[in-house]
Design the sequence.
């Protein structure tokens, strides 16, 4: 049996995993979901996310897709980042206007992120 091109290492309670699943489903991307036991992490999880050893991990063609961590740094940097995020959200809200979804009439990544927070 051929190995799946896209693999998601996940845990059923993970909100971030839910976001990834929603985005993959909306984009019609077929993937293999592998449930992780966080009390006994798999060798694949430890190999694909050796620094943080956390889920979810999205793997494409055997390589993990990296994540962005904005909350690393000093408290002042956090406050500045919060201000920037709030400004971005205000601009997104203005852009949305009367549209059904962010970005127009098509469900996309931003929508999946917002939707998963409501789950």
Sequence:
């Amino acid at each position: 049996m051929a190995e799946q091109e896209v693999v998601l290492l996940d845990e059923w309670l993970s909100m971030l995993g839910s976001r990834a699943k929603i985005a993959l489903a909306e984009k019609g991307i077929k993937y293999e979901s592998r449930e992780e036991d966080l009390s006994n992490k798999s060798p694949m999880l430890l190999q694909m996310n050796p620094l943080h050893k956390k889920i979810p991990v999205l793997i494409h063609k055997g390589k993990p897709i990296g994540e962005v961590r904005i909350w690393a740094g000093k408290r002042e940097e956090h406050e500045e980042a919060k201000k920037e995020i709030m400004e971005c959200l205000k601009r997104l809200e203005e852009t949305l206007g009367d549209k059904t979804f962010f970005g127009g009439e098509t469900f996309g990544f931003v929508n999946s992120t917002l939707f998963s927070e409501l789950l």
